[in-house]
Structures are given as structure tokens and as C-alpha cells.
Amino acid sequence: MTLETVFSSFSSAEAQMIAARLETAGFHPTVTDEIASMSMDGYSMATGGIRIKVPHKEKEGARGLVESLLSEESTETDQVPLSKE
How far is 1 from 75, CA to CA, in rounded Å? Predict the structure, then answer.
């Protein structure tokens, strides 16, 4: 089975959250390179970060979900008021 990368991050928490959302939606994500990227400072940048991979046949659907999650996140942060006055 060929796995395809649909998301990468330098944050373990972010990668795990995306993987959980994919799994909840019925995809079969695999988190790779997490331990290597957390082993030494700066190593994450050298390895390209933590990757979320899915089976090839799920690639397009998973990418679409990830893109919608990321655009939803940026929209929510854009609308948060800085102060309540």
C-alpha cells in the first residue's frame, strides 16, 4: 500500500490533531517522523517536519478535508476580537 503525504507540521500537537480529525472522518492516517523531529533541536527542520500520510486512494479526499480545516482555523482566528469593550 502506497502512502501519500497530505499534511506536514513542525508541531506534534498540530499533527496529532489533524490526524485525529482525519480518522474521525473515516480516513486512515499515519503519523510519521514525529519521534525523529522531536529528538534534537533543529532536526525537525532538517527532516521536513512531522508528516501525516494516508493510503493513495484517500489522498484527494484527505487533502480536501485538511485544506478546509486550515481555512476554517484561519477564518476563526481572523474573527476573534482583540478586546471586549
Answer: 35
